[in-house]
Amino acid sequence: MKMYILIRESVPTGFAVLAASHASLACYLKFKASPEIAEWLAGPFYKAVCRVNDSEFEKAKAFEDYVVLTESALDHQEVALAFKPREEWPKPFRFFRLYK
Predict the structure, then answer these.
(1) Is the Cβ–Cβ distance between 8 and 96 less than 8 Å?
(2) CATH topology for the 2-98 domain
(3) Where are the alpha helices (DSSP H) in the chain?
């Protein structure tokens, strides 16, 4: 089981770190009653934090079970998407670049 967190590449590094942290918690809180979260927490609970461009960010919203994070210090811009953990991921997720 893996949770994907997508961060817009235009987000400054300091805000990206905060967004990733908040995204993980927000996703857990939104989906905590789901069996996928229980299975994910049983371990190992992997997360992939990826850096995406604006087009990839918008296209990712077509997939189910995510939460959107905004940043008030950036005029409430959408900065991150966090997807409920799952075993199998749609093909585009394999091509997102890991955040380094």
Answers:
(1) no
(2) Bit1 (3.40.1490)
(3) 13-31, 35-41, 54-60
